[in-house]
Batch of 2 targets.
Target 1
Amino acid sequence: MNELWDWDAAYAVLPELLLAFLKVTLLVTVVSTAIAAVLGLVIAILRMSVPKPVAVVINFIGDFIRMTPIVVQLLFAYWTFLSVDAIVIGIAVFGIHYSTYMAEVYRAGIESVPKGQWEATKALSMSKSRTWIAVIIPQALRATVPALGNYAISMFKDTPFLLTIGVVEMVRAGLTFGGNHFRYMEAITLAGVIFLLASYPTSLLISRLEKRLAYNY
Amino acid sequence: MNARLTKSRTALAGASILGMLLLAGCGDGQIDSAEGGEGAATGDTLAKIKDEGTVTVGIAGEAPYSFQEGGEPTGGTIAMHEEIFKNLGVDNVEVALVDWDALIPGLNAGRFDLVSAGMSILPERCEQAAFSDPEIMYTTALMVKEGNPKGLTDMDSVLKADDVKLAVLSGGIEAGYADKLGIDNVQSVGNAQDGMDTVAAGRADAFAMTAISLNWLADNNPDSGVEVTDAFVANIDGQEQIGAGGTVFRKGDTELIDAYNQELGKITESPETYVDVLGEFGFTEENLPPKDLTTEQLCAGTAG
């Protein structure tokens, strides 16, 4: 009973972990990454195209979100928006929190587009929206894809914070199993292994993508 | 020079391996002696506590079962154990406060003599430890906003009502009920206090938990704006979910368990004697187990 590892317990907990992984962890990661990727781009473009005082305000809000812990934001939103499901709160908070990081990535990507490109669009008297959509964003994205991927992995590994607002994600499912069967070792170890198995190949994929997308100026 | 260096390195490696072996040997020795100690305690726990005049009980600090107030242990199962052990000639009941999950492991490691927490008698727990006769019947209740605006009475009413969010304790038995009944608008909470806050703030419409705990919470937080429905026995697929709690002992402490059960029988004999000991903490005659309910049935999962 006191042995360090019990295969029966491991087999018993694995389906529960995988279910929580598919139903919560993966769902939150995918949807929140999509939100963060789109919202981050919107923030980055807004910041560069609105008047200076407005940009300062946007900057401040972004800094504020980035400089406060995600757990605090989760709990704050959880107890403020009472009629919203905890999982929806989780997705929104993760999406918005990481969009502020992604906005920084996009900013760096946009700034890496050579000045000549901007000048060229002017010379061709392209409209502002055409400049962004046809010229700047496609070039900026190439430089930002790897960093965005890394933030997605980082978000993936942050999903256990959801247990603070009562969302039964993978770690909470493991803890519940542990509490009922007095076996934590298997549940927590397997949760860690599932995280590793999902994030390590993703990071390899991202580094391959990075090499393929790298610009040869 | 080089050869000497290699030699001294080999010696160092040898010494460290020897050291590790020694440590491992000591470790083994300690485990053996601990097991020996436990072995000696097994079966002799009754003699030991009579000898010392003190019984140490493990608690998880859960009101109203066993908790500490102003440094003093108190609660329903504590009152019961003080009564029972006084009759067994042990005047002093001491507590060891640990996490809920550490109660049975701590008991088996010999940190305390029994677990005083009204722990539910469940098959998987019976594999790890021995239970006394049933002591407390567990019925379920719902904590709702004052006035019960959604008119909830039991789990079925939650299932039938539209737009009712149910809070349950993460890993609690009610979470299993909700799951089996197909109630999917569920918010899980970490502890009873969180559950009450969740209902008080309006994040959930009802919080399902053991009636005893909910009544205690509501009585001790009169300003929280919540109330507790009448207790009910949850019904899943036509099967009444009978749950009962007892005191947990180490397997093999049979003499202690027999002596304990005999004294326990004097308390569970009639509703009067039962409420006399436990009534102060909100337990009522509804919590008195029926005479035909046995620990064997509960351990086998065939009660109800």
Target 2
Amino acid sequence: MRRLKRIAERMVEGLLTLSGGVTSLAILLIIIFLFKEGLGLFNSPNVEKGYSLCVNSSNEIVRLNPLQIKNIFDYEVSNWQEVGGADEEIMPFRFDEIFSQYSDEELGEDYALLPQRLSEVIAKHPNIIAFLPQKYTPKDEASVKVLPTKNISFADFFGGKEWLPTATPSPLYGLLPLLLGTLWVSIFAILIALPLGLGVAIYLSELATEHAGKFLKPAIELLAGIPSVVYGFFGLVVLVPLVQRSLNLPVGETAFTGSLILAIMALPTIITVAEDAMRNTPRAMREASLALGATHWQTIYKVVVPYASSGISAAVVLGVGRAIGETMAVLMVTGNAAAMPRSLFESVRTIPATIAAELGEAPAGGAHYQSLFLLGCILFVITMMVSISAEVISKRQYSKGV
Amino acid sequence: MKKIILSVSIAACTLLGAQAQKVKGSDTMLPLSQKESESYMKANPSTTITVTGGGSGVGISALLEGTTDIAQASRKIKFDEKQKLQEAGKSVKEIVAAYDALAVVVHPSNKVINLTREQLEGIFTGKIKSWKEVGGDDLKIVPYSRETSSGTYEFFKESVLKNKNYMNGIMSMPATGAIIQSISQTKGAVGYVGLAYLNKDVKAIHVSYDRGKTFAEPSVANAKSQVYPIVRPLYYYYEVKSEKLVKPFMDYVLSDAGQKIVSEVGFITLK
């Protein structure tokens, strides 16, 4: 009987170890997958895959960067001089235009004559820049010069200020507007949530009667249980028009609206952690303070709050973590404009919102897909730093001693 | 007891033996495919068709991986997607199932009724910033767009913006419903939605593609007679190899009964 019991215990122990092992392995695999997919972006060409850019061989241009290519095809840059060439007007040419210039017979069966026709067009116009599929790009033609493509560089990604992942010929993957947008919204969310959360935490741990506490605590915990899409919908229908009207803005979907929603969502975390920290203040310290003649309020802000300060900092950091990773609510209320944030009352786009909105339609395995995974890696690194710092901060409390 | 086991196993056998098909892809086409498959299954009880969304890109990559039989897409298959399929030794067949018209919508209080393609291009690329420039009030224009990778976004860019990029930092919403909601509560807003989504909370603009000579109102009749210019095809893609399996369903979609469903869902029929 006893032996049987021991075997059963062993088995349970084994199962527990196994489940722990499986969890760590799963996390490890997810991280490896994330980084493997993400870092693939830097092996993708900076012109859409399978395509190349051709110019007339009389053109002096040797190389164009993605931003220049985008501006040329948007007709923002219209003279070769602006990108280092001769003083001639640029003539952008997209592949589809060939079909309006030549009939199907002239292009031959299975488009066999297409490369030849394309090279005719390029030879005819000295200032052309043509965006063609590699399959039909004229090869070994004296009049055609294929511009070399480079891979997407670290500088393009980490220093880029424009996020246009589906732009053709040259998609732009600029991290900065998204990263700054995320931090911008999160930081303001914490600035709003901190005083409120701290107030509620102080009230709950020091001032609330047992009765009020019994009602308020579950209510706050309930706040954490509401699905974020509900917050998002509430934000879109109630907060957005409210912000727009009360501040007289042209649009209600702003970084500020996102911060408000995130502040509400981060409140439960901040309140619970901060309250726990304050409750942990030893009775002896409080009583000593009161015995010295301090009032209740003086005790709170001279003794309890300083004692709990590291717990409160941990609460803030955890709240930031919650805000940075939040997806759905932010996606619905910030307007998702991928511009560098300049003011609190303009639309911004965050990293999680970008991933959620774009992953569904991005061609699997393509550069756009990989860039979204790379965004995931960055988000992962940020949240990891946040939780490590929360850990470090909350540990300090115990080493300080009483 | 034995009877139950017997009947369950027979049911399982018929289920496995039945022709199961999967349709996956564009969210725009989701209501269409669902309705089509429902009535097709009613007519052919031995077949099962499962329809799921996820986006045009998801559908086509599922076709590549072989996890779906039919991909639904609100945009034409991209060149590199086609190449990938070719590399995997798969050739796909394309079927146009219906057409969808995109309506340009503004806040109901907006005085502007007509816009030309050139004006729309200016608005969405950020060159035209105030409604005053196109005959409206002195109000900032706030253009709304769909997400960068949605088929609707790409089509609007191709047709209206002539492949130029949208202005840097355009507001982009995750779904058509969100666009309607935002436009109905923002005075200077302008955006684009599928014809089926038009309602009284927003006002549809009459569009001209011939530099202002004729302006057409977005409506099913105008889209059908090609008076209204912003119309796009909706596609089904399937592998040539599985043609035998999916052909009956595709034929059904193109049949009169299938096309009737197309107009019920709010899209435009082929004929």
